[in-house]
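INFO batch 0412 | record 1 of 1 | parsing
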Amino acid sequence: MAFSYSEKVMDHFANPRNVGEIADADGVGEVGNSKCGDIMKMYLKIEGNTIVDVKFKTFGCGAAIATSSMATELIKGKTIDDALKLTNKAVMEALDGLPPVKVHCSVLAEQAIKSALSDYYTRQGIDPTPIVGDIGDHCDHCDHCE
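INFO prediction complete | emitting tokens
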């Protein structure tokens, strides 16, 4: 099945930004499903209320890599509140769109950020659910991969 990807998607796939790990991360989140093949892990370094560094490791298709890369670009240097407001729709718009069958990749990128922020709050001794919401431990799309 052939998809038409935007130039931005192709650029972030071929030249992903912020790839790697942060050894002393303040928050780490992982989402996805190995049955689907898309797994995203986000690492956050937070000072005060600002995300000063963010890295990701993604195992998945080109769209999964591109959405991870774009999501990190959109939250780096931003406040935690701004990061919590990032939606999968904003990630897709920043990439000039995704094929409908790949929309779940942008959902995973949003969930990975929220999962890392949830971990950050948990490490601070704060219940993350009222702040971050219920992240869920799976991708709805992945339910169809079983």
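INFO post-check: DSSP finds six helices and three strands in the chain.
INFO record closed
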